Each structure stands twice: as structure tokens, then as C-alpha cells.
Amino acid sequence: MICPVCKTVALQNEDLLQNLVAKSCKQCHGRWIPSYQYWQWLDKHGDILPEKPKEEAISLPVEDTGAGKLCPECGHFLTHRKVGHSMDFSLDRCSNCGGIWFDRNEWEVLLSRNLHDEVHFVFSSPWQKQVREEENTQIYESRIEKILGPEDYGKLKDMATWIKSHPNKSTIVSYILDSKV
Ligand SMILES: [Zn+2]
Ligand SMILES: [Zn+2]
Description:
The chain is α+β, with helices and mostly antiparallel strands. It folds into 2 domains: 113 residues, no CATH class; 50 residues, no CATH class. It is built from 5 helices and 6 strands; from the N terminus they run βββαβββαααα. A 6-stranded antiparallel sheet has the order 1-2-3-6-5-4. It is elongated, with a radius of gyration of 21 Å. The site of one zinc ion has 8 residues, from loops.
């Protein structure tokens, strides 16, 4: 099996986790997990682990090699989809055989967020819908920050967090809207 990024380097077996063997490239450090390997491992893995917050993500450089790769197993084009959840990279999956390609450090980052056992969901419509909603929220937030400037935007965010978690939030909101001060 040849690396879909380097195109000349043979992939070699690598024990990723207990019961999970990947095919790894020594040159670009990408990894291929064949579909049957992934599902066999997931079957023994038990319940899906709760997602960890973005602050707990391991700090490693991810080199997303982009779309357009071919499946190292069956030669079909790989589907390229954003992971979202505050991670700025995409994964590639073969829509024919179901194998998944991880560029350098993508697996490690997913593992640190406990999302390594949910990669099969990344390619589903509900997950991708959530990714688009996240992107829209980010666009909206950066627009507000641009209007207010970073300092006032920071104050607004703090205030919003405080109000939303306050037991009397409706009183506070009414006061802000109606106050003559
Ligand atoms: Zn490679
Ligand atoms: Zn394939």
C-alpha cells in the first residue's frame, strides 16, 4: 500500500492503540486506518468517550495536505471534510472502502480531545451541519469584534457570560433595555 500524499513511499504497520493497527508513512507521517481495522477496534473499545474541551487539545502542528487524494486501498477519490469542534483541519475518507486518512498529527490532536472514536461521524450530514453552524458563529463573532474593537468585545463577552449564567438574567436584561441611566 503506497502513501496517498508522497505517492512513492510504502505504508508500514504501526500499533496506534491496543487492537488498532494503522498503516503509516515514514516520510510525511500520515496514517491510513483501513475500515475493518477501525470498526473492529471501535467494537472492542466500548462506549464513546466524552469530548474534551478545546483547551485540552495537544499542541502539535497539523499539516493538512488538502483535498484530491486517492485511496491507497482501492484507488477511489477520498472525501475531504472539516472536523470542526475548534480544530482547523479536515479528514479524508474513501466513500468506497471506508478507510480514513490522517495527515501528520491529526490523529494525536483528535486523541487528545477524545474524538478519535468519533471520526466516522465527521463525514455524516449532522456533523457537517454543526461544522457550518460553528463557522457562521465564528463569522458573526469576528464581525462584532471588528465593530467594537477587542477591548469592548472582551467586556461584552464577559458580561454576556455573566448574564447567561445568572439566576435573575431576565431582570438584568430588562434593566439594561429599560434603564434611563
Ligand atoms: Zn507519505
Ligand atoms: Zn478505498
